[in-house]
Amino acid sequence: MLPAITPAIRLMPPARRALAALAALALAAAMVLSAPLSALALDTAKCTARPNGNTGSEVYGGSETRLTWEGQADADEPVAGLSITFPAGTTFSTDDARLTMLSGEKLMDRTTIDAQLASDGETFIATFDEPLPAGAYVRAEIYEVTFPTSGGEMPIKGTYTLEDGTTMPVEDITPIMVEGVSPVDQLSKALEESDWVKAWNSNKFLRLFFNPSIVVSSFPIVFQGFLMAVAIVAVAFPIAIPIGLCLSLMRMARLRLLRGIASLYVNVVRGTPLFLQIYIAFFGLPLAGIQIPSFPLGVVVLSMNSAAYLCEIFRAGIQSIPAGQTEAARSLGMNGAQTMIFVIIPQTVRRVIPTMTSEFILLYKDTSMLAAVGVMEVVMYAKTIVASTGSITPYIVAACFYLVITLPLAKVVGRLEHRLAGGRPRRKHRPGAAKPLQGTDSAGVTAYVTDALTSQPVIKNDTADAGR
């Protein structure tokens, strides 16, 4: 067309000739742009790695995973080969790799692609025996992929080869997010691959209840729950002590109303399971429109439950103090409140410390019940790992975290009870040294209280002791 237009342009005046030349160039450009071009694109539809941790959807370095890549070729583009390049330091295997062509409605029809598989460093290479039909949807699955332990974004690159041998880049491959591997995970992996652990795990009972590699890998996870349990009981128990002391004083008060309120509370709390109280608090309060976070609500429930038991502990301790000490304090002019604060309660606390320590142990173990309402403590973390591994070993690890607290405290309770029972060896009386206060008679208490209040030397009357 352009050669036919050229003679006509030459016959035009110069101005019109220039305009006509520009119009001819524009027409030629439009014809070139409208001409069909070869489609050269293999778009990535999916590129993911299978989670390889004990929990969650994370992909960890240093552990085997599976890479799945899917791509769609253009309608007039027959693909003859595919290559995928991993980051430096990544290893993989071509033994179990699979190439599949998906077609049909919702890509449900699958056809295995026959190909020659090879590796070149960090590059996976697949050469198809026959070029795929134009517009094919391809899936590549590469197994035993191990990313570097450093973690971070792992860029994946790819190329594909056309039927005529042209090589083009694969577009839009999303990097894989890989979590770094801690020394604990590396140790767990090394244990899992060691010969003695394999021999140990060959026994089904040992593998289920004490798998060494799972012990190591679950330890830091369960430790987070241990910190949560300790935090709960460390806040709940100090709150329960003054509440329990107030309830014990109310139960011994002269006013019938105070005694009735304290008795009702103690009997209801001690007469119902703690598990039921937790359910009422965590599911009943939200229905009533009261929203409280899990941690403070768990602290409140455990402290209120422990206060009912501490009430009886304090009441028994107060009633174990001889009445003569109260009479002695009154004879010195102390009123009822002063007698209770300065004479009765200090001796009561000394007597009930072993029982209070036992209550602390029970309260710490009761934190495990909060797992039923989703509080992430020791049992909840262990339960999560058990669900993903199918091994009971994390529960054994959780039991060890409980024993770390309970066994030393049980030993302390035993020693305190031994000392309070008079098991401590007596010290030899040195000449000139004051004799220790003995007995609980009124004369001895009078001397003890007077000495404590005046901070002056007093002459203790041992006549009563001599006559006992």
From TrEMBL:
According to its record, how does it sit in the membrane?
Answer: Multi-pass membrane protein
Question: Where does the ABC transmembrane type-1 domain start and stop, copy by copy?
Answer: 226-413
Which keywords are on file for this protein?
Answer: Amino-acid transport, Cell membrane, Membrane, Signal, Transmembrane, Transmembrane helix, Transport
Q: What is its main location?
A: membrane
- Write out the transmembrane intervals: 226-250, 262-284, 290-311, 360-380, 392-410
A family per Pfam: BPD_transp_1
Q: Which residues form the signal peptide?
A: 1-41
Q: Which Gene3D superfamilies match?
A: MetI-like
Please indicate if the UniProt record lists Cell membrane as a keyword: yes
Q: Does the keyword Cell membrane apply?
A: yes
Segments carrying the region annotation (Disordered) are 421-440
CDD domains, per this entry?
Answer: TM_PBP2
Compartment(s) where it occurs, according to its Swiss-Prot or TrEMBL record:
Cell membrane
Question: Which PANTHER family does the record cross-reference, listed alphabetically?
Answer: GLUTAMINE TRANSPORT SYSTEM PERMEASE PROTEIN GLNP, MEMBRANE COMPONENT OF AMINO ACID ABC TRANSPORTER
Stated family = Belongs to the binding-protein-dependent transport system permease family. HisMQ subfamily.
Q: What is this protein called?
A: ABC transporter permease subunit
The source organism is Adlercreutzia faecimuris
